[in-house]
């Protein structure tokens, strides 16, 4: 155990969580998963390469595996569990719904990160075209290769104009 | 004792139809949709989908118990070394450490393995690859466990690694990775194991079967092309690392919650190592974050159970990404030498292939990979005289085993490259040459197996060629850097960008081959819940993202005419479902669910007759189930299931087997070794920056015959995903190994395709039913992984004029920089 611990308070999904005895080296990801039991956020690589750990901090996308929990005191953290205002499987967020309807995942391990990234992307206004969605979703790996459906799901929610004749949105639909 | 975070049963209520993502050509027979909503042929939502998008789905790494300990694994820093001694005292004394175990603590069998039990649970005598587990620790915090590993002292005598698979295969003076006798289980006599060879399989047809030499057969051809090829080591790179939670039970057994591809084969390996009967080792499938073959072998299963049994506490082990690269098997890297001869008018006369597959330190599935590489090594072509020699060898490199399309992927890159070289020599279009030599129904493979199912290869090739091309690159005007190879990282203005087009086709065996007793088990229960008929489906099959939970529900709805279906969690309380591999689960577990449903149906009809609802005047009338009611073809609704069943339930369990297959003859390689064949054709269009060595895949379009579409949307996902992994092998994915050491065990340096690398795909699906398979279906997950790689490399060759005989293609191969 570390020689020194500290106490931090995290604001996650609209609730305050006091973390006594926090090892200052604890990442935000580990704090969410192991201290708060919010296991919806995933650890894929631990080095900021795969995007599975994406959460929002004050509405901006961050990689929680590359963030120290203690530095996020006072920031409003949103995880996949808190994306839908009323939460849970009963009333999913439109992005969550769109991912289901477009079958934008297979194993689903990258999906919470993809959805949080998409939520940030839409707020950033980077959804003008399927190409733009691709460019700004490129930090989130999907090993099952559901990329075409991820683009479609994000475009559905962002109401991205699907250019007539463009191959993106029309692909996969007869 | 509390139970771990449960994986809740997956209810499948009110399926909603999704837009069909598949282009079905008009000529193909339509997929007859089930009359029950959400049945076979429609696209109901994944029953686990909402849990996955809300973060509530419990993957194996999400399991939690309040009193659990954390396990960690000490791994060998050397690829090849003798262990002189292990001293654990420093680790045992650390506060917070509850157990430190070595090979001496393995309660039962000290080795396990899928085909040969040659892999130590914990190393003893020697270590044979870098990263081999040597000791395990359980502690109250993961960091404590990891620090304790540093206190374990292992005295190694370092040995020379055996890194060169070709030397391992052919040099009698090469040091042995496994000393014969003392630490190897006996080999199957047909596998020709000797020295470092795990298996050697020859195949001979035509003049080669009569003993003709290559020179004699070569004289029959007008044109000859030869090629030497290399395939790098690909990683499955599932995003959810290896993890599991073992819970000691009051009966002295253990309950393991684990992400795996095959619960029962894990159980059959774990129980002997623990010295327990199988019924005391109970497995439940935890959420699986991707598999692609890497979870067919075990990783931390026995370790977690050993620690749990020793400490009497639940033990969780989770690998990090670097450990994952060392903790599972990879795709066999291969060296291959091919020769093809043809007549001037483009008829193949003969072909030879010598294939060396690097199995690494332990056998894993190497023997089966050799079986596929030898039998399908020349691909889907009619070739009168064929000679294949396939070798799988032990080295001290990382162990290799299953990855999507195993054995066939490596060969497909080579035979397709050969066909392209031959087409160039003959001045023929690559598609035309392929059509002239295409196999079809009734053809025989190089192993003499008659293809007794539709194989519309020529038609598929024509369709791929006729698909609309993507727009040409603009010759002038402003350059959108995002559209250039390398995207925003491209430093040019596109001056060096050239476009190329390439084709690929591959032949894959589906289901298990070579005489394996391949079966699946399903239990189906029909009862009335809340006044409505409801079905429960229970199997041990692993949902790994392929969507099998959806398919099981669809089949139950179709066969029982009941909309409300619940798929129970997969566990070992029901019989084996076999592996979620070899594209086999829709066929096998789908077949088992269907068989169990038909048995339930028959029981229901018996009840109908027993109730006197079938009158003497209608003794032979046809009965059916629809809309939760028993219906007669002549008289309509006879009775609702709710009224018929009341408080009673009808439950049936069935095993389903595919037809038997044969072993390959050990000297001629002849035999009907495969259950079913799958085929995909790809056309790739690429832009290559020939100055910078960068590639952008502009289009990657596919034609695949799947026999019968069960779920159009999920099928498209399988084709897209398989194609993407083939793209990765073509252009970027390689575990770089030198001196038997992995140099790039992270996603910084091991690149997998991003959303920018994988283009939108046009997909045409054909449905020519296989008369031997349930619903006529054909496994779909693997074939796209074969053909996408050679199609992309052919397109890069067309753009650059480079020979490109090695995958993945590297920037320096494109630019033409020599490597030492």
From TrEMBL, chain A:
Keyword ATP-binding carried by entry: no
Pathway: Alkaloid degradation; nicotine degradation
Domain (2Fe-2S ferredoxin-type): residue spans on this chain: 6-83
Molecular function terms from GO: 2 iron, 2 sulfur cluster binding; metal ion binding; oxidoreductase activity, acting on the aldehyde or oxo group of donors
Keywords, alphabetical: 2Fe-2S, Iron, Iron-sulfur, Metal-binding, Oxidoreductase
SUPFAM superfamilies, per database record: 2Fe-2S ferredoxin-like (SSF54292), CO dehydrogenase ISP C-domain like (SSF47741)
InterPro entries membership: 2Fe-2S-bd, 2Fe-2S-bd_dom_sf, 2Fe-2S_ferredoxin-like_sf, 2Fe-2S_ferredoxin-type, 2Fe2S_fd_BS, Aldehyde_Oxdr_Iron-Sulfur, Beta-grasp_dom_sf
Identification of the protein by name: (2Fe-2S)-binding protein
Automatic annotation (TrEMBL), chain B:
Highest taxon in the source lineage: Bacteria
Stretch list, region Disordered: 1-52
Segments forming a coiled coil: none
Residue ranges annotated for the Aldehyde oxidase/xanthine dehydrogenase a/b hammerhead domain, each copy included: 54-160
Name of the protein described by the UniProt record: Xanthine dehydrogenase subunit D
Lineage: Bacteria, Bacillati, Actinomycetota, Actinomycetes, Streptosporangiales
UniProt GO molecular function: iron ion binding; oxidoreductase activity
Any one Pfam family match given in the protein's UniProt record, by short name: MoCoBD_2
InterPro entries assigned to the protein according to its UniProt record, in alphabetical order: Ald_Oxase/Xan_DH_a/b, Ald_Oxase/Xan_DH_a/b_sf, Ald_Oxase/xanthine_DH-like, AldOxase/xan_DH_MoCoBD1, AldOxase/xan_DH_MoCoBD2, AldOxase/xan_DH_Mopterin-bd_sf, Xanthine_dehydrogenase_dsu
